[in-house]
Design brief:
Number of domains: 1
Radius of gyration: 19 Å
Distance between the termini: 41 Å
Largest sheet: none
Structural class: mainly alpha
Number of helices: 10
Strand content: under 5%
Shape: globular
Number of strands: 0
Oligomer: single chain
């Protein structure tokens, strides 16, 4: 069954003015996501069937190179992430710099502007697009690890499920994800073009991903703590549990990946 959509009106007068393409019906999109809450589960099932079918078909075939296509793909996602970081990050910083900003940025529905709301929506929709990362992996016969497809599936489901709740904390997750991807995707684009990059850069990106998960768990726990006080917090129980489960699992998996890739005996990426 669909969940209730929580309204969060835009700030009036707006502190941030949107470009023409950033004007959209926020409530209508959230209603759609709420009514079609099963959609990402269906897409995830189709995605898993597709990638493992391709992987099976590729066993007796030569790997596709796809260097230019992969570079273009990663560069496009990198530029998109930079724009998302700028639009959502500007608003998060605007809230954080206000009195009692940390608490308000997580627990109070205020100071929402259309540009940030638009890129929060695109954040959820981009999780469907990012499934294409794995298509490149299996077509190029690169190692497909559990973290890769689990991360893509659960991120897509999580974003689609929590957006209708209009929780201020989602700006934190959007900014962190856009921020890491602003570095990660350009790095992958350069790697696709055979540019030699020090191994420390890839390790730094993995550390940033792990830091993202640790902070994600931390702000979720903070909001849970605040809910037990008189201050209160604009959080929904289902969202708290879902984010806690997903980000907690990500934290463990990325920590394991970091150790095995850079500090373990095999150090195999």
């Amino acid at each position: 069954m669909s969940k209730d959509v929580v309204s969060w009106p835009f700030e009036q007068p707006p502190h941030f003015h949107g470009y023409w393409f950033e004007h959209f019906n926020d409530e209508e999109w959230k209603e759609y996501m709420s009514d079609h809450w099963k959609l990402p589960f269906y897409v995830c099932a189709g995605y898993l069937l597709l990638i493992f079918s391709i992987q099976s078909l590729m066993r007796k075939r030569a790997a596709f190179k796809l260097q230019k296509a992969l570079a273009f793909w990663n560069l496009s996602l990198g530029l998109f992430s930079m724009m998302g970081l700028y639009r959502v990050g500007s608003e998060l910083l605007y809230v954080l710099l206000a009195p009692n900003g940390f608490y308000r940025s997580i627990c109070v529905r205020e100071k929402l502007n259309e540009p940030a709301a638009f890129f929060c929506l695109l954040f959820a929709l981009s999780k469907f697009v990012e499934l294409g990362d794995t298509i490149f992996i299996v077509l190029r016969k690169q190692p497909l690890i559990f973290l890769q497809w689990y991360h893509h599936c659960t991120s897509m489901i999580l974003a689609w499920q929590v957006i209708p709740y209009s929780e201020p904390i989602c700006r934190w997750y959007g900014v962190m994800n856009y921020g890491v991807h602003s570095i990660m995707y350009p790095y992958f684009a350069l790697k696709a073009l055979k540019v030699q990059i020090p191994k420390k850069i890839s390790m730094t990106i993995t550390i940033l991903q792990l830091a993202q998960m640790i902070i994600g768990v931390g702000v979720n726990l903070y909001s849970l703590y605040v809910l037990g006080t008189e201050a209160g917090c604009a959080r929904e129980p289902y969202s708290i549990k879902l984010i806690g489960t997903v980000y907690g699992s990500f934290m463990v998996l990325f920590a394991d990946f970091l150790y095995k890739s850079y500090f373990g005996k095999s150090k195999k990426l």
